[in-house]
Amino acid sequence: MSAVLAGALCVSLAGCSSTGGKRAEDARAAAAAGGRAAVNTPRWTFAMVTHSGDGDTFWDIVQSGAEQAAAKDNIKFVYGHDKEAQRQAQLVQSYIDQKVDGLIVSLAKPSAMKDVVKKAEKAGIPVISVNSGAAESKAFGALTHIGQDETVAGEAVGEELNKRGRKKALCVLHEQGNVGHEQRCDGAEKTFKGDLQKLYVEGTNMPDVQSSIESKLQADPGIDAVVTLGAPFAPTAVKAREQAGSKAEIDTFDLNAQVAGGLKDGSLGFAVDQQPYLQGYQAVDLLWLYKYNADVLGGGKPVLTGPQVITKKDAAALQEFTKRGTR
Fold first, then answer.
1. Number of Cβ within a 10 Å radius of residue 38
2. Which of 43, 62, 109, 316 has the highest local Cβ count within 10 Å?
3. How far apart are CA 177 and CA 105, in angstroms?
């Protein structure tokens, strides 16, 4: 994707040379760092509205990627979020009313978002979906979807558990009603040769998350793997394992500095990274390309940013990026 974007950007940017897109990208990065846009297109306003709760490090990384691309593309970027689907939809409606030039939305609970995304389309506002809702994105009228196929990502987890000789796994779902979370666990169950059980917890209450996992591990010593569906929950699962006296391996979806540290010191087995920085960055870039040049990458089909299985051997190289908030 980077190569395709670099080629498209060369149409409008001076400085692309025979050495490829690196010099142009360096020039854009330098311009953004100096507070200057790297293009002379109009000052469009793009809004992103996600289903993130407060303090979710995953969405901080998505937002960071979007802000970097916005600075480069001369975009005024605004961000809103709410874990409650109806309030998320209301935020989208507020940006439609403000007549923004482009919208980026997550579709974790698609039924609540369907009408408002269609309203944006009717209002002539291009929409790109990110992270969740790939199956519904096109039907709702979005240009494309950027993220990972959650079922495929789950299948990768099941295959990795098989490689590690695991026999009984616990898949911890921290947000009921999130279709992507169900797809992750169902995908893992599909390829995992052992037994996989689901455990629903209240993700906004970490003590409850820990006690629920701990109780399950105490009640069933045969569980030899716990899979959490978000990076912030992995350290909590580690604490639960310690308190339960279990030897279960803790694995997780998504990556942050704590997860990279856990992979490095061996307290975590592996992580599945969907590269959230790319989701934010590419969403803004692709909206810009659509507004500027009517480009639609991937022919309207989902643009995948994952899954990438990360283990201890990868952790040291990634720690620098997790500390700066881009992985």
1. 21
2. 62
3. 17
CB 231 within 8 A of CB 205: no
Instruction: Report yes or no: 219 and 197 within 8 Å, Cβ to Cβ.
Output: no
CA distances in angstroms from 105 to 98, 101, 102, 130, 173, listed in the order given: 16, 14, 10, 6, 22
CA 227 to chain CA centroid, nearest Å: 17
Model pLDDT for residues 114-171, shown as the tens digit of each residue: 999 999 999 999 999 999 999 899 999 999 999 999 999 999 999 999 999 999 999 9
Question: What number of H helices and E strands is found in the chain?
Answer: 13, 12
DSSP string for 78-146: EEEE-SSHHHHHHHHHHHHHTT-SEEEEE-SSHHHHHHHHHHHHHTT--EEEESS-HHHHHHHT-SEEE
Query: Rounded distance, CA 121 to CA 109, Å?
Result: 19
Global model pTM greater than 0.85: no
**How many angstroms separate the CA atoms of 324 and 318, rounded?**
10
> What is the token pair recorded at 142?
């979005």
Q: pLDDT tens-digit profile of 226-235?
A: 999 999 999 9
Instruction: Give residue for tokens 């998350």.
Output: 209
Residue type, 232: P
